[in-house]
Amino acid sequence: MGWVNDARAGLTAGRTVQVRPTGGSMRGRIESGQLVTIAPVAPLAVNVGDAVLVAWRGGFLLHIVKDAKGDQLLIGNNVGKINGWVARSAVIGKVVAVED
């Protein structure tokens, strides 16, 4: 996905990025095509309820942190699906703004 690659490149360079992700798994919180600002984040600064860009099973998801236990975060979407647990270190960035 082009937006994911753009986001990863900027975030790994320490920059805040703006992308327009597509898809429906975050509808109600992030609509397909909305302008999303994602900032680099320290793993320990990620909290339950945060929307994050996270490495997941060889790909990347823009999903919500549903629970946190120590170094592990439970990731899910905004329409009821729970993906599973990942290490905090898998988080690449945190959503800081969503605009039309």
Automatic annotation (TrEMBL):
InterPro entries named among the record's database cross-references: LexA/Signal_pep-like_sf
Descriptive protein name: Peptidase S24/S26A/S26B/S26C domain-containing protein
Organism: Gemmata massiliana
